[in-house]
Amino acid sequence: MFNSQAPAPEDLPSSGQLIRSTIAAAAAAAAILVTVVLPSEYGIDPTGAGSVLGLTEMGEIKTQLSEEAEADRRQSESGEAKPASGQPETQQDSFLIDRIFREMFVGTANAQEVRKDEMSVTLKPGEGTEIKLTMAAGAKVTYSWSANGGVVNFDMHGDGGGESTSYEKGRGAPGAEGVLEAAFNGKHGWFWRNRTDADVTVTLKTEGSYSDINKMM
User: How far, in Å, CA of 56 to CA of 54, rounded?
Assistant: First the structure.
């Protein structure tokens, strides 16, 4: 049996040294927050370092895309909540019940269903659109989309059951491809905005585990 030798008292850090180390660590964390995190995530640049490093523009893009996607999502939900003119109320209620059932149960029950789709939408200058897949938590979809010769701003995100997340954002992108894995049960997909002065046609191809695909707006 071996006994380790206790360190000598003079080898241990003093209270003053520990306090100074804690203050130094806190100061470093604050400096990173102000010079890197705030500019790159929120477009807030109190020191000007973010502009020099090119981080402020990144944060402004993220903030702008999030605001646009949220505004369009609310507008879309507001439009869906209003019964169409002349549509019987009982039919509208039946549609809502069916939608709730599909979102709560169908997505989970058909999580292993594999399907393949392709959708295209043309955006005029300033227009935005959103395409969502109904997916169960953990489901995966291989995707690719292209702006067909143009560029668009985009936000790949998801929402459902009171949860929301953003997977990836970009500005002036001609297209993207990869694998989307649903973080929770709900709607997951893409929002695109055409900020150019010409029409842009976005073509989306998807293949994987999802129960439905819809153009939301």
Answer: 6
State whether residue 139 is helix, strand or coil: coil
The pLDDT tens digits along the chain (217 residues) read: 555 565 566 666 677 777 887 888 777 777 777 776 776 676 777 777 767 766 667 666 767 777 777 777 777 666 544 444 444 444 545 544 554 445 444 444 444 478 999 999 999 999 999 999 999 999 999 999 999 989 999 999 999 989 999 999 999 999 999 999 999 999 999 999 999 999 999 999 999 999 999 998 7
Residue with tokens 């039919």: 91
The pTM assigned to this predicted structure is 0.52
Taking the mean position of all CA atoms in its chain, how far away is CA 18?
41
